[in-house]
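haha ok so turns out i had the wrong file open the whole time. this is the CORRECT one, sorry everyone. sequence first:
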Amino acid sequence: MTDATTTAAPAPSLAEDVLLVLFDPGSGSIYSEGSPLFHVLAGAVLTEVALAGQVDIDRKTTLRGRPVRVTDLPAPTDPLLLGTWQRVEKKPTDAYSLVLEIGPGLRAPTIERLVERGVLRREATRMLGFIPGSRLVEGGAGRRGELVASLRRVLVDGAEPSVREAALATLVSASGSLPAMHREIPWSGDVYARGRALQQGKWGARMAGDAIAVAAAAMMSTALFVTVGLPAMEGE
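then structure:
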């Protein structure tokens, strides 16, 4: 019998889904590894708390960037999001500084969450035939395939996305990894254009689109987004 006091595991976060999509089952590596991945994961967390209305990101850029502050809504209960909320609640900051600050600390706990859920698992390996190690492999849950299929519908087929799909497609597109994922999400000029449109909030759910676009624009001044050359948000 299940203990009634047991806390249910939080639903998969946007950061988990982004990292899972960027995981390459063939090589066991992660696309955009390094600083770009840190920025993408930070962007996912920032996007999620912004969509939930738990933080507010100014639409206009000031001399200190885009200010971020908590709202009067309750704090997130997901530990992966709570740390960022607490950081902003303690001292409001700008989005650029926040992305750089929280990004490096998100990779390890995000991977651990995916392993705990069984969507990724660690497989023992031996380097040079005798040095013990491990590598990540895809679990049997099938979630990555579902997420990639939803991205194909949005980015390749042009289907109208849900809010969650739009956020995920925006982040994956902004990561600059889509050309390397060509076998799963065929790369084309249309895919690039649809990714840009999502980054600018140009889709059906206007209020959510604005929130995602503002969060994406807030990350454009980091090294990742300067490198991939995302367009400035309209009206910025």
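The chain has ten helices and seven strands.
again sry for the mixup
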